[in-house]
Each structure stands twice: as C-alpha cells, then as structure tokens.
Amino acid sequence: MTSREKEFRVLSATAILGYGFPEKSFRAGLARKPHLIGADAGSTDPGPYYLGAGKAFTNRSGVKRDLRFMLREGVRRGIPVVIGTAGGSGARPHVDWCEAIIREIAREEKLTFTLGIIYADIPKERIRKHLRKGEIVPLAYVPPLTEKMLDDSLHIVAQMGVEPIQEALRRGCQVVLAGRCYDPAVFAALPVMRGFDEGLALHMGKILECAAIAATPGSGADCALGVLRGDSFILETLNPARTFTPESTAAHTLYEKTDPYHLPGPGGELDLTACTFTALPGGRVEVRGSRHVPTPEYYVKLEGVRRTGFRTISVAGTRDPIMIKEIDAILEAVTGQVRDILKAEKIDGRIQFHVYGKDGVMGPLEPETKIRSHELGIVIEAVGSTPEAADSLCSITRSTLLHYGYPGRISTAGNLAFPFSPSDVRMGETFEFSVYHLMPLTGRTPFPVKVVTI
Question: Are residues 271 and 298 in the same domain?
Fold first, then answer.
C-alpha cells in the first residue's frame, strides 16, 4: 500500500451476475469513485447439471444487462472490472459464453479495452499424476477419487486464487473474465496487489461476493460497497432501504462454512479468531482482526461431474385425507409394483418421490414426522439410462400411483390432481458431482491468462 492509497473501494454489483441490481444503487456506488467493480458470476448451489451440460444457470438477457452497466461505466471511467466463475460454473463453455456477451456489448457500446481471459479447466492427466502419488485429498463426506471416477468426469475445473487475476491486471487488462474462481479472489486480487492486507481483503471479498445479501434486509439483486483500509474494512449499502449490522455481517461470514473461525481457500485460510464487527453510523459495519495464514502446501479445490442418465418428472397433488394418512405405505407399495414391471420389461432406471407437505425439502433428515397439511404435493422423479427409458419409467409410476387401490379409498376416478397437461416433463441429462477434492498446485500454473484487445 502506497502512502497515497489509504483506502481501496470495491463496488460489488450483484450477488450473481444476471441477478440484476437497481440502477440507482449502482450509480450511488459509482459516486463513491470505486477502484474496482466486481461480480461473482457463479456457484455450485444450483447443482451439478450446469457444469456437466456446459450451460449457464442465469438468463442471458439478465447477464447482458448487468454486464452492460459494469463494462460501460468501468471502461469509460478507467475502473478495472473483474468477473469470476464466468457463466455460472466457470468451465471453458461458460467462459466462452460470457466472452461472447462481452464482445457483443463492446460492439453495441463502441467500447475498446484489453480483456484478460483465464480458463480454470484442469486436464485429467495432470490430476491423474497427483492421484497416483496419493496427493488428491477428498473433502468432508466425499469418497476418495478413483481413476474410474476421473475418467467418467466432465469439465473438471479448479478454484483459482488471486494470483491469475493479478497476472491479468499486471498485463494491463482493464476487464478480467475468469473461469472457476475462489469467490473472494474477485474482489481481493487488486487490493492485495496494491499492498493492502490479504486477510482483510479476502474477508471483505467473502462478504462482497454476495453483495447486499449480507445486509438487512438482504437481497442478492442489489449492490454493496467495501472500503478497505490499513487495519480494517467497512461495508456500506448503496440502497437506503438496507443497512449492514454486526449480526448480519458476522452471519454472512459463516455462510457455507463449517468452522466459524477458520475459512480455507486456495493456498491458505482465513483466521477469524480475533475478528471484531463494529456498527458505525449510517448503517455501516467495520471489521477488524481478519488474518490470512498460508498453508505449507498450496491446494486448490477441484470440481467435476459425471453423467448419470436422463430425468423425466411428473408433478401432482392430493388432498384425500385417507391417502395422506397412509402416504408412506402407498408409495412403498407403488415402488414395489413399479420395480416388478421394470424387471419384467427390462427397463433400467430408478424412481424417487418428493412429497411436499411431508418431507419434500429435507427428506430423511426431516425431524417433523407428523403431517399437518391438508394436501400434499408429489413430484415423481424418474431417471433412466436413455430419455425413452426415463419417459417409460415416469409414465408407469404415474399411472400406477394414480390408480393404486389403497385401503379405505372412496373414489376410484384417480388419486392425483395434475396441474399441467402434459403431465410428464423431460428434464434432460442428469449429473452428479464426482470430483470434489483438493489438489496440490505444483509446477506450471493451470490457469493461463489470455490477453485480447476488444
């Protein structure tokens, strides 16, 4: 940090690129003359499908709208713009998709700038070398990685830290588009490069990656400002309807973490044992005491998925109190009948019932065992080895449940009410996470920076 740089201001546009933000909030942030405009563009929260399919989970029009504001104002004002985990999952197809939108905006707005593109895809052979040396470490509750799982996996990415983004910025990139990224790195790379404390910068990035979600009331579709200083950082909302509080800020610090004091990341961890949260006038919060502690080895988190089949679903409901009372026994009997049919017809697949109003959200982890609802929503999920197998499996299950004769049934016209016609909907390919492990970072960087002029 130079003597002239006593603070570093970061404008976080939105919790996820494409979620949107009020233009008034964004312009309030610009009025604070930020040194950086950033946005995290992805997450594993929507599940494995988007990484496997190479598709974005956000709407293209929404992403383009957000990017237009960020690029137009950032480039014209000389403010660096950094996007992390492009396209939602951060694999090459997602980065390329987002790059195309950036080029489109540049043409329409007549913008010229230097773009840094950083891919996060990791070759299987690089992972295999570490695997054979016993250096791939599974995360909690994840089985050890095998070569079969590795071979079956698609689009394996790693979470990059601040270093690749810093390289792009050093090479004069005004806009940085990164693949899968450690969320705080988007906001911390430049201030750390400028000499600000890494622990404070990463902790501030941990809050800013979700923008105003950490405020009260929280929103993923609003902006937030972080002001990094020599020994603290301050969080500010840019919408008078929201405030940061010590409670909301501390709570978001724990977001997605199992340990409240030690938050692991690429090459180290955040030590928050001495962290304090202090309310300031104007709905602001000041945070002190965050420390970054490097680990002996630099590890990155790998994420990969493998294809498991094809899914078809049917959505239905019932409000028959007799059926509701006996729903577990009914679904068990229907499952048995369907399995017999599958075996006889040699149809490969599996079925699952998601019963909303009973345990549709938490499944077997639901502590409330008594059904208190007068109606139940039932989602029939059928997964087969082909789309046709999934269709057949869903159809058989739906018709069996629709006409199943349970004890005490009064009406024989049908047990289910269907809100849609057709009742069965193809959901496409299904995937599961197969790689969720740590890999040591040795030798040549797996995150090469490509610099292009737009």
Answer: yes
Strands 376-384 and 114-118: unpaired
Judge whether 2 lies within some domain: no
User: How many other C-beta atoms lie within 10 A of the C-beta of residue 123?
Assistant: 10
The range of the structural domain enclosing residue 402 comes to: 320-416
Cβ-count burial of 183 within 10 angstroms (0-12 exposed, 13-18 middle, 19+ buried)?
buried
The pLDDT score that the predictor gives to residue 316 is 97
How confident is the model over 142-147, as a mean pLDDT? 96
Mean pLDDT of 199-219: 95
What's the burial of 404, exposed, middle or buried (CB within 10 Å: 0-12/13-18/19+)?
A: middle
Indicate if the alpha-carbon torsion angle 75, 77, 79, 82 is positive or negative. Answer: negative
Q: Are strands 262-265 and 299-318 parallel, antiparallel or unpaired?
A: unpaired
Query: Dihedral through CA 149, CA 151, CA 153, CA 154, nearest 10?
Result: 180
- pLDDT tens digits along 41-66: 999 999 999 999 999 999 999 999 99
**Residue with the two structure tokens 């078809």:** 312
Model confidence at 439: pLDDT above 50:
yes
Position of tokens 């709905």?
283
Query: Into how many domains does the chain fold?
Result: 2
The residue type at 73: E
Peptide bond into 191 cis (omega under 30): no
Indicate whether 311 belongs to any domain.
no
CA 348 to chain centre: 31
pTM, rounded to two decimals: 0.92
Strands (E), 230-333: 233-237, 262-265, 268-271, 276-280, 284-288, 291-294, 299-318
Q: Are 111 and 78 in contact (CB under 8 A)?
A: no
Q: Write out the H or E segment, with its range, that includes residue 261.
A: none
